[in-house]
Amino acid sequence: SLFSELQGASGPRLCGNDWVFQQDNAAVHNARLTKEFFQENNITLLDHPACSPDLNPVENIWGWMARDVYKNGHQFQTADALREAIFYTWSNVPTSLLETLASCKPKRLFEVINKNGGATHY
Fold this sequence. Notes:
Blueprint: H1 2-15, H2 32-40, H3 58-69, H4 79-90, H5 95-103, H6 105-114
Helix pairs in contact: 3-4
């Protein structure tokens, strides 16, 4: 699958064999098949409390990517075509988006602290 291609190539290559995978508590992440995949592949997950605020800016990147991949209502005829579009989009994430997300991190943290860990507008 696309996920296993990304995970398999990136985790150990970037962080060695002692890395931890982070995800939020979305229903799809807690599905039985997802949990089995992580167990079968000996992937350590970061313990994430329920209803915790999502401070991971990659969520914003995923949103940008989804909008870009499917812009103008584009549909894909094959999984390979979709995979190609995703990899192309990933390699063309604007530096300005990354800089904006990095620069707003202190504001995100400040808002979480002010809301005692509650929901933020991010």
